[in-house]
Design goal:
This protein has two helices and seven strands; from the N terminus they run E-E-E-E-H-E-H-E-E. By secondary structure, it is an alpha+beta fold. Strands 3-4-5-7-6 form a five-stranded mixed sheet, covered by helices on one side. It is globular.
């Protein structure tokens, strides 16, 4: 995402199961957070994926991150999660979200 030709954010995705767009990262520069740019990134991605013919989107976040609230406000629904409890790799639960477009 550019603002006055300056990069301020990014959204990265891949195809889950080779056919479902899965957002793997949304980041907005700290200086610009809380100003609606993350929402704009996600909405742009949703529009682009719909234009390409996709009908479903996926994303995820850890349960201790605020992003879950943003996704719900944008119409994403909780659809599961998993816990990695192997000590070397342990982390908070990863929760998954789904949205029909």
């Amino acid at each position: 995402m550019l603002l006055n030709d300056k990069p301020i954010g990014l959204l990265r995705y891949n195809l889950f199961w080779d056919n479902a767009p899965f957002c793997t990262m949304v980041f907005v520069d700290w200086e610009y957070q809380g100003k609606g740019y993350g929402r704009k990134l996600i909405e742009y991605w949703e529009h682009d994926m719909k234009a390409q013919g996709y009908k479903m989107l996926l994303t995820s976040t850890q349960v201790d991150e605020e992003a879950q609230h943003v996704y719900r406000k944008l119409g994403y629904k909780d659809c599961g999660g998993f816990v990695i409890d192997i000590p070397e790799f342990a982390q908070p639960m990863e929760m998954f979200f789904i949205k029909s477009i």
